[in-house]
Amino acid sequence: MAQIKSQLNQKPEVFKLKICSRIFIIYMAEIDVPPFFLCPISLEIMKDPVTISTGITYDREGIEKWLFFGKTKTCPVTKQPLIDSNNLTPNHTLRRLVQAWCTINASHGVERIPTPKSPINKSQIQKLIRDASLSPQSQTQCLGRLKSIASESETNKRCMEASGAVEFLASVVISNIVSSSSNNQDDDADGRFDLKNGAGDEALSILYNLHLSEAGLKILLGFKCGEFIDSLTRVMQRGIYDSRAYAVLLLKSISEVANQVYIANLKNELFMELVQVLKDQISPKASKATLQALIQLSPWGRNRIKAVEAGAVPVLVELLLDSKERKPCEMMLVLLEMLCQCAEGRAELLSHCASLAMVSKKILRVSTIANDRALRILLSISRFSATPNVVQEMLQLGVVAKLCLVLQVDCGNKAKEKAREILKLHAHAWRNSPCKPSNLLVSYP
């Protein structure tokens, strides 16, 4: 106690919070919470209890996350499939019991749970959208209201999606892109544009935060014969930084539900803007989404070549030189390996003076996945692009020494097989070289 008082005198504002937190925990430990007040998912007191078709009651937030973000539409307790996962019936009786219990135990530090707002309905959303066409001010008010509604619950988001909000928001983005592009005086000094006083930016933000279902993403994919995808490209090209991030995050989600034929016919400009977003590093989240999008898009049609022509290879090499985090490094090596499956990609890689050394450096330093992809890159180079100069460069840069080291350490049989294959491909050029460390000769195949 004396120690606490001493620390309280030194930092009163911090320790008051800590003491209050401890007291609250002590009080809660003394209270016997009725088990049927607890949500089966979160095991916390339910703030907004709802009953699903199986008769089990959950807290709305918990069951919404389970149903809307899970892969299966089943009851968490009974495991029974749900015919109508959107049918969440408010359990008003249980909510009133919880509120009454909170009131009774207020002296123990338990706060009364407020009565939750009723979920929005389709007619309200549709009226908002109709009213938005009356004037620019009405559109701004509508966007603000939609943003507020979406933030309240997952149920509201699904209701908005089912009420035509996706189409409305996509139209706002498209129309404001056109308007901003035709009005040069809206351009900022750095060439960026604000989507017509922020209306397009706001619509793009709402679309992303709706966390659209597969059906909603497919609406965006085919909206007005691909105009929305073209608009995302323009936003990535000249939009403000937040909007560029939202655009690439949406594009990543859309690419996950697009069919192969559509993906194979994407425009070169889209890849150019994705690579530029990756180069600009506007945020870690946007960079991760860009890598994921490029990984999803690259296998189809001529997309590998489009990404290479957009300058993806040197950008990836430069980013890998400074990358220290495991996941981004893995993703960059995965994408680089995919691009090296075409001759253009290998040529771009070899044209960068640091590429072979960088790829070799990542082996045994990041993860098993990174080992595999880096060795695949080197194997592809060794098989298809190994000119005499390249072979000597691999020796001088320590690539051969690293491959010999892979054979000595415990890094998995698959990695050893790839390293051995690379070494065998050019054994005649590397076997007697003085550049190869003598301690690694025993591992040379």
Automatic annotation (TrEMBL):
Single GO molecular function: ubiquitin protein ligase activity
Pfam families in alphabetical order: ARM_PUB, U-box
PROSITE patterns recorded: U_BOX
Gene3D superfamilies for this protein: Leucine-rich Repeat Variant, Zinc/RING finger domain, C3HC4 (zinc finger)
All residue ranges annotated as the U-box domain in the record: 32-108
Presence of the UniProt keyword Oxidoreductase in the record: no
GO terms classed as biological process: defense response; protein ubiquitination
Catalyzed reaction equations: S-ubiquitinyl-[E2 ubiquitin-conjugating enzyme]-L-cysteine + [acceptor protein]-L-lysine = [E2 ubiquitin-conjugating enzyme]-L-cysteine + N(6)-ubiquitinyl-[acceptor protein]-L-lysine
Annotated pathway: Protein modification; protein ubiquitination
EC number, UniProt record: 2.3.2.27
InterPro entries, sorted: ARM-like, ARM-type_fold, ARM_PUB, PUB22/23/24-like, RING-Ubox_PUB, Ubox_domain, Znf_RING/FYVE/PHD
Keywords: Acyltransferase, Transferase, Ubl conjugation pathway
Enzyme class: transferase
Task of the protein: Functions as an E3 ubiquitin ligase.
Record-given protein name: U-box domain-containing protein
